[in-house]
Write a structure and sequence with these properties.
One of its GO terms (molecular function) is acyl-CoA dehydrogenase activity. Strand 5 and strand 6 form a beta hairpin. The strands form three sheets. A two-stranded antiparallel ribbon has the order 1-2. A two-stranded antiparallel sheet has the order 3-4. 58% of the residues lie in helices and 6% in strands. Among the domains are: 31 residues, no CATH class; 144 residues, Butyryl-CoA Dehydrogenase, subunit A, domain 3 (Up-down Bundle). With 293 residues, the chain is mainly alpha-helical. The structure holds flavin-adenine dinucleotide. The site of flavin-adenine dinucleotide has 10 residues, from helix 8 and helix 9.
């Protein structure tokens, strides 16, 4: 798959190029990376999500924290998709396929269980010594998840805009009704606002000024608006909005896990809330014994 730009580039390498594994002149900015993810998700959120996890979490962590040998061994293979990031077999590691998902159905998710897993020294990422090291990759991934949801919303808007001009009721296309137009405008307004917020996040990241609170607020707010946008799109299609034959229903379902993965709406709000108030509210206050008076 290629993305448009001054030079064609393989989409699986975009994050790796961003992290500067290649010559500086060949690197891709955060903004370019984000727009590429949005364009993939505009067509298929499952593929967008798969490439995102493969590139932004697995490969990025090796690039940022791996030894030179690990980078040489894995990154070219991962970048060409000759190797897919996945759990390698190890004693104590168990992976069970999660069945019966209603969304992102071509993505195979696993329940991963660790029981005294032995990790040989050559598989450890030398400079990843705390969870904090992982937070930087997570924040980058959160920007990209936000852009995946912008892509999903744009894809639904495209489909709806076409559908309402083709389907006729009461002798006119649905697009002729004022209430239909109002929904389209709400969707487009959301997309514009999501786009600008996502663009600002990318610029903050590129200038080294983005905090974890920025990334979390961006992911939470943009996915919330995207969820509203795809719900409006589903409404616009009436009964056809729940049929798999029409891709709006698929995107409507796919938006749900995107709203929840890479930090749920609530947890991302709490991360930003902690940053702006200085108070962590992840755990409730200690419960006091109830009085029976
Ligand atoms: C398609 C998909 C792919 C995923 N990929 C990965 C992956 O690659 N790696 C990975 O590690 N995980 C992955 N996840 C897991 C995902 O990150 C979790 O589902 C998510 O973090 C929520 O955790 P949970 O499902 O355990 O829900 P729970 O923790 O049980 O939460 C249920 C609800 O309670 C809310 N809640 C929980 N705690 C609080 C609190 N303190 N305050 C307020 N509300 C709270 C949550 O926001 C949520 O709405 C994936 C999930 C999906 C659906």
């Amino acid at each position: 798959m290629t993305c448009r730009g001054p030079r064609p580039c393989n989409i699986s390498t975009i994050s790796h190029r961003w992290i500067g594994l290649r010559r500086r002149t060949d690197s891709v900015t955060t903004t370019a990376c984000a727009v590429a993810y949005a364009e993939i998700a505009r067509v298929d959120p499952s593929i967008g999500s798969s490439i995102l996890v493969h590139s932004c979490l697995a490969t990025l962590l090796i690039a940022q924290h791996g030894s030179e040998k690990q980078k040489q061994n894995y990154i070219p293979l991962l970048a060409r998709l000759d190797m897919i990031s996945t759990c390698k077999g190890a004693p104590g590691l168990r992976v069970a396929k999660i069945e019966n998902k209603v969304a992102l159905r071509i993505v195979q998710n696993g329940d991963v269980m660790f029981d005294n897993v032995f990790v040989p020294d050559e598989d450890k990422l030398p400079s990843l010594t705390s969870f904090q090291g992982f937070v930087e990759a997570l924040s980058f991934a959160r920007i990209m998840v936000a852009w995946v949801s912008i892509g999903v919303a744009m894809g639904v808007y495209d489909l709806c805009n076409r559908y309402v001009t083709e389907r006729k009721q009461f002798g006119v296309p649905l697009a002729a009704f004022q209430l239909t137009q109002a929904k389209l405008v709400r969707m487009l307004g959301n997309i514009q606002a999501m786009f600008l917020t996502g663009w600002r996040l990318c610029k903050l990241h590129e200038s080294g000024k983005m905090t974890t609170g920025h990334a979390s607020m961006g992911k939470a707010w943009i996915t919330l608006r995207a969820r509203e946008t795809v719900a409006l799109g589903r409404e616009l299609l009436g009964g056809n909005g729940i049929l798999t034959d029409f891709l709006v229903a698929k995107a409507f379902c796919d938006m749900e896990p995107i709203y929840s993965y890479e930090g749920t709406y609530e947890i991302n709000c709490l991360i930003t809330g902690r940053e702006i108030t200085g108070i962590a509210s992840f755990k409730p206050p200690t419960l006091k014994k109830r009085s029976f008076l």
